[in-house]
Design a protein that fits this description.
five-stranded antiparallel sheet; 5 helices
Length: about 130
């Protein structure tokens, strides 16, 4: 089972992060958390990895709808979106597929919320492809 939605864009890492923030905002998502994996691993383990961040994106109306269907759904929120460098001019963007919420909980009442969130995330990634 695939658990992600992804795209690879021909943009530098920092440019992609900026464009992704805008694309997510246009789809109603705000960024609640940001984890700089490269900086964290360098600081904690003294290892180097290519630039990579995990953005915790949240669309409050969708989160509220999901909570109405499944009170423990907070365990699967917010939607994680990973941006990782794949070279100087290429960046991979991956989002956790919201359909996972339905599969993990076995709650079909979440399907409309997952469908909406999936459509919005795909639209944000498509906006990056078009940039």
């Amino acid at each position: 089972m695939s658990y992600g939605i992804s795209t690879t864009v021909k943009m530098a890492f920092d440019e992609t992060v900026t464009a992704l923030r805008q694309a997510l905002s246009e789809q109603g998502f705000g960024i609640l958390t940001e984890i700089d994996m490269a900086a964290t691993l360098k600081n904690k383990l003294d290892v180097d990895i290519p630039p990579q961040v995990i953005l915790g994106a949240c669309n409050p109306p969708l989160a509220h709808r999901a909570l109405q269907e499944e009170e423990s759904i907070g365990l699967l929120l917010p939607c994680n979106v990973v941006v990782r460098s794949a070279g100087e001019t290429s960046t991979v963007v991956e989002a956790l597929d919201p359909q996972i919420m339905v599969g993990v909980t076995d709650n079909d009442g979440l399907r409309p919320v997952a469908d909406d969130a999936t459509g919005r995330l795909r639209a944000a990634l498509a906006a990056l492809d078009a940039a």
